[in-house]
Automatic annotation (TrEMBL):
Catalytic activities: a uridine in tRNA = a pseudouridine in tRNA
Any one of the GO CC terms: nucleus
Tree of life domain: Eukaryota
Name assigned to this protein: Pseudouridine synthase I TruA alpha/beta domain-containing protein
Pfam families: PseudoU_synth_1 (PF01416)
Binding site for substrate: Y213
UniProt region (Disordered), positions on chain: 27-94
InterPro entries found in the cross-reference section: PsdUridine_synth_cat_dom_sf, PsdUridine_synth_TruA, PsdUridine_synth_TruA_a/b_dom, PsdUridine_synth_TruA_C, PUS1/PUS2-like, TruA/RsuA/RluB/E/F_N
Organism, as annotated: Mucor plumbeus
Active site: D156
Biased composition (Basic and acidic residues): 35-46, 57-94
Family of the protein in this entry: Belongs to the tRNA pseudouridine synthase TruA family.
Length: 488
C-alpha cells in the first residue's frame, strides 16, 4: 500500500491514460480518455468507487478500534495506580474453585444465619473468618456476591444447625489446610466441616431438594394446663406481660412465673403412652402437601407459596437428660416457610395437652385464619439439607469424569460430637437455667382473649376465635387507614 501511495505522489495530477483497458466489476476505463487523477486514485479506482469507500471505512474502523484499546489500557493502568491504600499490595492470585462448604453452628446469640447489614449473623462471622484465612481474597472481602455466596437454608434467630451448606467460589491454598485455618478464626460454636468441589453452576438453594430439621421438646409440654391468675399490676419484677394484641381495645395484664414447686413438677414429669401416641399421630397429619397459611406470617390462603410438601415426620421414644424427659421430632420437607415448624410443633402439643381431637388439624389448612402460637426457637435445629437429584447426576457422570457428591456422612463423627456438645447439651442447659419452655407454657395458660377457643372437645373452629388480618380481610369493605393487622 505504501508503494502505491508514493507512486501517486510522483505522478502529475492531470494526464492522459495510455495504458490498456482496466476491467472492473461495475465500470471500464477506455484507452485515450482524459481524466483527472487524485492523490488517492489507485489502479483505476476513483475516490467515490464502492471498493475505495470500503477500504477507507475499514481503515477508520481499525483506527477507532486501536484507539479504544489504547484508552482501555490507560484505564486499566489508572485503576492499578489508584488501588485503595487500605487494601495494601495486590495479593498473589490463587486459583478459585466452586465448592459446597459444609458448616454447623449453635445459633444462640446470633440474629439468624443470613448475612444482613449491621447484623451479627452466623454468615457474617464465617465470611470474615474466610477472608482472614485467605479462602476469600481481600479484594472480594467487601461483598459476598463477588464469590457467588449462597446458603442452602436460612435459620431464624437462635436456631441451630448440625449441618448447613454454602456454595461459593473459594480459594484453596496449597501450603496449608484451609478448613483448619478457617476454623482457627471462628468461635467454637461455629464450625466448618469440609468442602466438596462441585460444578460451576452449582447453587446451594436452587439445587437443594429438601431439608431435614429436628425439634427437641420436653414432655412436660403435654401436662394439663395450669390456670393462671392475672393482675392489673406486676407482683414481681420478672412477671410475664400478657396482652390481647388488640390495637382498638388493648388490654395488658401480668402473670407470675411458675413457682419452684411447679418447675420441679415439670422437670420430673413423665408423659403417658396415650399422650405420646396422640402427639405422634397429630404430627403425622402434617405429612403431604397442605396449605400452611395458618403456620406462618404474611401469607394469605390464596397464595401458592403457602403450599408446602412434607415428606415425613417421626417422633422418637422418650429420652432422659438430667432427669428430664424429652422427645425428638425429625421433620423432612421439601422446604419450610417462616415459623412453620415451630407452629406445627405447637399445634401438635396443644391438641395433646388439651384433649382436643386431632381432627382439628386438617381444618387449619382451610381458609379460616386462626392464631397458632410459636414453640420456642430453643428446641429447633437444622439437621442437614439434601441434594439427592444433584448427587444422582454426579454418580452418572462419574463414569466419564470424576465427580464428588454432597454427603454430610463424610463428617458424621465430628458432626455428632459437635451436636452433642454444642447443640443438645446447650439446649438442655438453657432450659435448666432459663426455663424457656416453662415460660412458654405459662404464657399459654395466661393467654388473654378467645384466640384459642378452637381447643375444644369437638375440634371445631368457632367464629369467636377467627382473626382478621390484611391478608384475609375483604379489601372493598375497608380503606387502608381502617386496616388493623392482628399479630399472630
Amino acid at each position: 500500500m505504501g508503494n502505491v501511495w508514493s507512486r501517486s505522489e510522483a505522478e502529475p495530477k492531470t494526464h492522459v491514460v495510455t495504458t490498456t483497458t482496466v476491467v472492473k466489476e461495475e465500470a471500464t476505463v477506455k484507452l485515450g480518455v482524459k481524466r483527472s487523477v487524485d492523490d488517492n486514485d489507485v489502479k483505476g479506482e476513483s475516490l467515490d468507487s464502492p471498493a475505495k469507500k470500503s477500504k477507507r471505512k475499514d481503515g477508520w474502523a481499525k483506527k477507532a478500534k486501536n484507539n479504544k484499546k489504547e484508552q482501555k489500557g490507560e484505564k486499566q493502568t489508572k485503576s492499578l495506580q489508584e488501588r485503595p491504600e487500605h487494601l495494601g499490595p495486590r495479593e498473589p492470585r490463587i486459583p478459585k474453585k466452586k465448592v459446597a462448604l459444609l458448616v454447623g453452628f449453635n445459633g444462640t446469640g446470633y440474629q439468624g444465619m443470613q448475612l444482613n447489614p449491621n447484623c451479627n449473623s452466623i454468615e457474617s462471622v464465617l465470611f470474615e473468618a474466610m477472608v482472614k484465612a485467605n479462602a476469600i481474597s481481600k479484594d472480594n472481602g467487601d461483598d459476598p456476591k463477588k464469590s457467588a455466596w449462597m446458603r442452602a437454608a436460612r435459620t431464624d434467630k437462635g436456631v441451630h444447625a448440625a449441618g448447613n451448606l454454602i456454595s461459593l467460589k473459594m480459594q484453596i491454598p496449597e501450603d496449608y489446610d484451609v478448613v483448619e485455618r478457617i476454623n482457627s478464626f471462628l468461635p467454637p460454636q461455629i464450625r466448618v466441616w469440609g468442602y466438596v468441589p462441585c460444578i460451576r453452576s452449582f447453587h446451594a438453594k436452587n439445587l437443594c431438594d429438601s431439608r431435614v430439621y429436628e425439634y427437641l421438646l420436653p414432655t412436660c409440654a403435654f401436662m394439663t394446663p395450669e390456670k393462671k391468675i392475672l393482675t392489673d399490676t406486676p407482683t414481681f419484677e420478672d412477671d410475664l406481660v400478657i396482652s390481647n394484641n388488640n390495637v382498638i381495645e388493648p388490654i395488658v395484664k401480668y402473670a407470675t412465673r411458675s413457682t419452684p414447686e411447679l418447675k420441679q413438677q415439670r422437670h420430673n414429669y413423665r408423659a403417658t403412652q396415650q399422650q405420646l401416641d396422640t402427639f405422634a399421630a397429630a404430627m403425622k397429619i402434617f405429612e403431604g402437601t397442605h396449605n400452611f397459611h395458618n403456620y406462618t406470617n404474611g401469607k394469605s390462603f390464596k397464595e401458592k407459596s403457602a403450599y408446602r410438601y412434607i415428606m415425613s415426620i417421626n417422633v422418637s421414644k422418650p429420652m432422659y437428660i438430667d432427669g428430664s424427659e424429652w422427645v425428638s421430632i425429625k421433620l423432612h420437607g421439601q422446604s419450610f416457610i417462616l415459623h412453620q415448624i415451630r407452629k406445627m410443633i405447637s399445634m401438635g402439643m396443644l391438641v395433646t395437652r388439651s384433649n382436643t381431637p386431632i381432627s382439628l388439624i386438617p381444618k387449619t389448612f382451610e381458609e379460616n385464619k386462626i392464631n397458632i402460637p410459636k414453640a420456642p426457637a430453643l428446641g429447633l435445629l437444622l439437621e442437614r439439607p439434601i441434594f439427592q437429584v444433584y448427587n444422582d447426576k454426579m454418580r452418572v457422570k462419574a463414569n466419564q469424569v470424576e465427580r464428588d457428591i454432597v454427603d454430610f456422612d463424610l463428617f458424621k463423627d465430628v458432626i455428632n460430637e459437635f451436636k452433642e456438645e454444642w447443640i443438645y447439651k446447650k439446649i438442655f442447659e438453657a432450659e435448666n437455667q432459663e426455663n424457656v419452655f416453662d415460660g412458654y407454657l405459662t404464657s399459654l395458660d395466661a393467654h388473654l382473649g378467645d384466640d384459642y377457643e378452637y381447643l375444644n372437645p369437638e375440634g371445631n373452629i368457632p367464629d369467636i376465635c377467627l382473626v382478621s388480618t390484611k391478608y384475609n380481610r375483604p379489601i372493598k369493605q375497608e380503606s387502608d387507614d381502617e386496616e388493623q393487622e392482628h399479630d399472630d
